[in-house]
Specification:
Blueprint (H helix, E strand, L loop, with lengths): L2 H27 L4 E3 H8 L3 H13 L3 E3 L4 E4 L8
Antiparallel strand pairs: 1-3, 2-3
Length: 82
């Protein structure tokens, strides 16, 4: 791998990290927000494949939920009994 390839790889990784932070922040700031992959793509200026991968990663991290019809929303933790 050349230095140029390394630079491009790092730039792509940084864009994905920035997109992940933007998407997560938006859902955390707006708890009632729900959106599809296409809506996320338009809102965040990214392709559907990338958005779906990030949204699914946030589902795996228990930040979001995903409905059977592929709508994503913020996952609220169950309240802990006092």
């Amino acid at each position: 791998m050349t230095n140029c390839d390394d630079t491009r790889t790092l730039a792509r990784r940084r864009r994905i990290e920035d997109l992940l932070v933007s998407i997560e922040s938006e859902f955390l700031a707006t708890p009632e927000l729900k959106m599809t992959v296409s809506e996320a793509g338009r809102r965040f200026g990214a392709d559907d494949v990338t958005c779906e991968a990030i949204l699914d990663a946030l589902v795996d991290a228990a930040v979001l939920f995903k409905t059977p019809d592929r709508v994503y929303g913020r996952l609220f933790p169950h309240p802990v009994a006092a």
